[in-house]
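for the writeup, i need someone to sanity check this before i put it in the appendix. the sequnce is what the collaborator sent (i think, or maybe the updated version? ugh). structure was predicted straight from it, no edits. if anything looks off just tell me and ill rerun, i have time this weekend
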Amino acid sequence: MEPDHDLFFRALGDETRRRIVFLLHQGDELCVCELTAALGLSQPKISRHLAQLRAAGLVRDRRRGQWIFYRLAGGLPPWAMAVLAAAHDGARASAPYRDDAAALAALPERLGEVACR
């Protein structure tokens, strides 16, 4: 399903949602606990923004036990992927996006759900 253009751009208009999308754009599937640790934000705040990204059609989730993992939605149209790639390329070297990527990389390697206790 192609995302609604207005919802897509409104979703990217918020810095926290951009930070989440940019981390997911790196190709990883991440759980809420990894996102909270990397961004230094509370779980309710991250979950609220993830719900908005899901409603806009940018992310999909997968439940495994009590953990929910998020990834960019598969099948985004080429225009949407081009926008995400260009935005990520243009911003990844600047704060806070650079710092988010470093914080995520510094987390212990995930062994199933162990990292999300």
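The chain has one domain: 5-104. The chain has six helices and three strands.
thx in advance!!
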